[in-house]
Amino acid sequence: MISVYHYMILSAILFAIGTFGVLTRKNMIVIFMCIELMLNSVNLTFIALSRHLGNMDGQIFVFFVMTVAAAEAAVGLALIIAFFRNKESIEVDDFNLLKW
Amino acid sequence: MYNNLWLIPFFPLVGSIINGLFGKKIKNEKVIGSIGTLAIFASFLVACQNFFGLLGSEQKVYQETVATWMTVGNLNVEWGFLLDPLSALMIMVVTGVGSLIHLYSIGYMHGEVGFFRFFSYLNLFCFSMLMLVLGNNALVMFIGWEGVGLCSYLLIGYYFDKKSAGDAAKKAFVVNRIGDFGFLCGLMTLFWALGSKGVWTLNFVEISENAHLLQSGGVLITVVTLCFFLGATGKSAQLPLFTWLPDAMEGPTPVSALIHAATMVTAGVYMIARMNILFAMAPTTMMVIAIVGAATAIFAASIGFAQNDIKRVLAYSTVSQLGFMFLAMGVGAFTAGVFHLMTHAFFKACLFLGSGSVIHGMHHGFHHAHLHDDPQDMRNMGGLAKKMPITYWTFLLSTIAIAGVPLFSAFFSKDEILWWAFGSSRGHWMLWAVGVIAAGMTAFYMFRCVYMTFWGPQKTNPKAKDHIPESPLTITIPLMVLAFLAVVGGYVGVPAILGGANHIHHYFEPVFGHAQELFHISAHGSHAAEYSTMAISIVIAFIGIGIAIYMYLKKPELPAKFTAAFPGLHKAVFNKWYVDELYDFLFVNPCKKIGTFLWKGFDVCVVDGVVNGCGWIVKGLSSGLRYTQSGYLHNYALAMVVGVVVILGYYVFG
Fold first, then answer.
1. B53, B154, B316, B606: least surrounded by Cβ within 10 Å?
2. Is B67 helix (H, G, I), strand (E, B) or coil?
3. What was the ipTM of the complex prediction?
4. Looking at residue A62, which CATH number applies to its domain?
5. Which residue of B has its CA nearest to A24?
6. What tens digit of pLDDT does each residue of B88-117 get?
7. Is B525 a residue whose pLDDT tops 80?
């Protein structure tokens, strides 16, 4: 029988994979996909616990997260295109302007 | 009364602003000079109206408040004006002599760079001086007191491209500050002393009315009056703060006449007269004032013996005459002191303007011959009587007046002072003796001055000799008016013993009568004593004149012989008794050393060290921290993850 614990563990694994990807990958699009993965692992947690606790708040929250994720995808991709136009690259190692 | 007292300082202020702001654009000397002169003349007319109104009125003390200045706790200060016989006389002197000197300046300052600046300052000075004498409370007086000091500084340093003028201006300002410090201390102590008795006031009328709350002859009143007197010594160039006045002669001559002879330097005398009741309550202070006054009179007169610069002779003469006024204040002869202030304003202004006229002529001559001789040095003059007759006669009349020759103005005022010094309940025969000797010395050095300038052979460089003209009318008219006043000005105070009505005594009765009656200050003595002191001072004056004429006119080789016989004495007098050097040694150089130490030691090491040290510490710390900011996304992301893990760990395991 699949219980709420299994969902939790799956979600944790997905989140860890996403985090690891963000920290290690160099390609901006892959990093971006890893962020989506982290968001969706959180969504999975929300849904599972919502069902488990019989409370609809979590599911409503998921809609918000998905909306935000969609908006983020739009902005993020736009940024990536802008970067590419600037430097002909989407490797994060080529961008180190984020300092004093 | 007329409700227009505020107009008196207002006109010069307006004149000063117009000339100061727009003078550079106006350019035309006649317009600028007219604005300045008319402004002060308008004040003179208003002053006349008020003066004669006061003469005819029963009410002798009249106050007018324009606005409230500030109200802080118990302190309530108003922009108020006070008209009483004392201030009425002062405004007449300031605006009257001021108008003449403004008129004179039009001729004298002709062609100077910054003509407008001169008139702006001069009007500003008149404004400040009128605030000083008209203010009905000590703080408004203090505004004027500081204002005249500022204008004095500005005008002494008028030729600011000359180093000596700049130094003299600074010296005048700094020495005055020492006095002003005393004035402020006295002011605050008085305010507190009266306040602790329940009367918080700075108003002169109220101070006089409530002075009895303070213990007469007590320590407090003595300290207060001594502080005020310190202020007076600074402003009025008394021992030990007189050194700035001779140096102040670096300013243009009309300035010397107006500020450093007729008006500003008498502010100290006026201030003591204004607060006469407080001073009458402190016999110790009065004694100090009398001694300082007498000492200054004789000390300055002695320096006048050996000066060769015509303006410096007059400057030391001014210091000496101010000493007489303080002697008068010190022995309780308030009326005589202010009387002498008035006559002195006439004859000394005339003398200064006369010397200015001479310098003007000499300058013209030297300029014509392309020489660079000193136009102020009396050794270059001599025999000018024929060249500039009007200047000569006015100068001579004023000299006769200052020497104390009977029937001329200073005879009456000086004799009144000497009689009080002898016969007053606060006087002493030694004060009188010093005064008489100083009077004789005055007669001597003034006639020496006349001789060296106007009589005897002309020692001017032959090239310039025949090109010394009489000055223009704008210069000679004020001279004639002032000489006339110097001759007749004394007749308002002919003493009863000579069959006079002593108008000025009755005139000042409302101001000084109360204090003199309360503390039994009066000049006692038989008629015989009064006659004999008068006779002695006349004889001494004539002896002084006689010696001068004998030494310089009959036996011109005598002065040189005398100098050769006492070289040390002559050198000491010529160098002003080395007072400046002494002060340099005692005060100026130690102050400079402390200043240098504070600059190079304290400021550079400690203050700058702390400031720069803070900068270095922050810089050092941050240069280490900046390595944490790489700019790479991964580092930041890792930092965030680590942060989240730490926080979560804290919640879960903490």
1. B606
2. strand
3. 0.85
4. 1.10.287.3510
5. B634
6. 999 999 999 999 999 989 888 888 888 889
7. no
Tell me which residue has tokens 């016969």: B423
Q: Are B523 and B419 in contact (CB under 8 A)?
A: yes
Nearest to A96 among B632, B637, B641 (CB): B632
Helix (H) or strand (E) holding B549: helix B527-549
B329 pLDDT above the threshold of 80: yes
CA distance B279 to B515: 9
Residue B184's identity, in one-letter code, is L
Per-residue pLDDT at B1 exceeds 70: no
Q: Is the dihedral of CA B112, B384, B545, B577 positive or negative?
A: positive
Reduced to 3 states (helix: H, G, I; strand: E, B; else coil), residue B215 is: coil
- Count the Cβ atoms, other than its own, within 10 Å of residue A75: 10
**Alpha helix locations (H) across B566-607?**
567-574, 579-583, 589-596
CA distances from B555 to B230, B451, B547, B561 (A): 44, 12, 10, 10
Element (H, E) at B77: strand B75-83
pLDDT in tens, A51-98: 999 999 999 999 999 999 999 999 999 999 998 998 888 888 887 777
- Residue B610's pLDDT band, with cuts at 50, 70 and 90, is very high
First-to-last alpha carbon distance for chain B, in angstroms, is 90
Residue contact B631–A97, C-beta within 8 A: yes
Q: How many domains does chain A have?
A: 1
How far apart are the C-alpha atoms of B256 and B251, rounded to whole Å? 7
B553-578 core/surface letters (b: 16 or more CB in 10 A; e: else): eeeeeebeeeeeeeeeebeebeebee
Per the DSSP assignment, residues forming a β-bridge with B203 are B137
**pTM to 2 decimal places:** 0.79
Query: For all residues of chain B together, what is the average pLDDT?
Result: 87
Grouping H, G, I as helix, E, B as strand and the rest as coil, residue B70 is: strand
The token pair at B361 is 């002529």
Per-residue pLDDT tens digits for B17-32: 999 898 888 888 888 8
Residues B327, B333, B336, B338, Cα dihedral to 10°: 80
Distance CA B92, CA B442 (A): 27
Please tell me which of the candidates B629, B632, B634 has its beta carbon nearest to residue A100.
B629
**Is A77 domain-assigned?**
yes
Residue A100 domain flag = no
Could you tell me the sign of the dihedral formed by the alpha carbons of B382, B388, B394, B397, in that order? positive
- Nearest-Cα distance to chain B for A47, in Å, is 22
Token pair of B386 as six digits: 């024929």
Which amino acid makes up residue B273? A
Q: Under a CB-based contact definition with an 8 Å cutoff, are residues B374 and B126 in contact?
A: no
Residue B589 amino acid letter: N
Is the backbone of residue B62 left (phi > 0), alpha (psi -120 to 50) or beta? Answer: beta
Q: Which domain holds residue A17?
A: 4-94
Residue A100 has pLDDT above 70, yes or no: no
* Cβ neighbours for B421, distance < 8 A, ≥ 6 positions apart: B290, B294, B327, B328, B331, B333, B427, B428, B431, B432, B435
CB atoms within 10 A of CB B60: 15
Quick check: helix, strand or coil at residue B82? strand
Q: From CA B73, how far away is CA B287, in angstroms rounded?
A: 37
CA of B187, closest CA in chain A: separation in Å?
A: 59
CA atoms of B610 and B64, how far apart (whole Å): 54
CB B450 within 8 A of CB B317: no
Which of A22, A93, A99 faces B629 most closely, judged by CB atoms?
A99
Q: Does B566 touch chain A (CB under 8 A)?
A: no
Relative to beta strand B75-83, strand B62-72 is antiparallel
Residues B484 and B492: their CA atoms lie apart, in Å, by 14
Q: Tell me if A30 is assigned to some domain.
A: yes
Closest residue in B to A21 (Cα) is B634
Mean of the pLDDT values across residues B188-209? 88
Residue A17 is assigned to a structural domain of this protein: yes
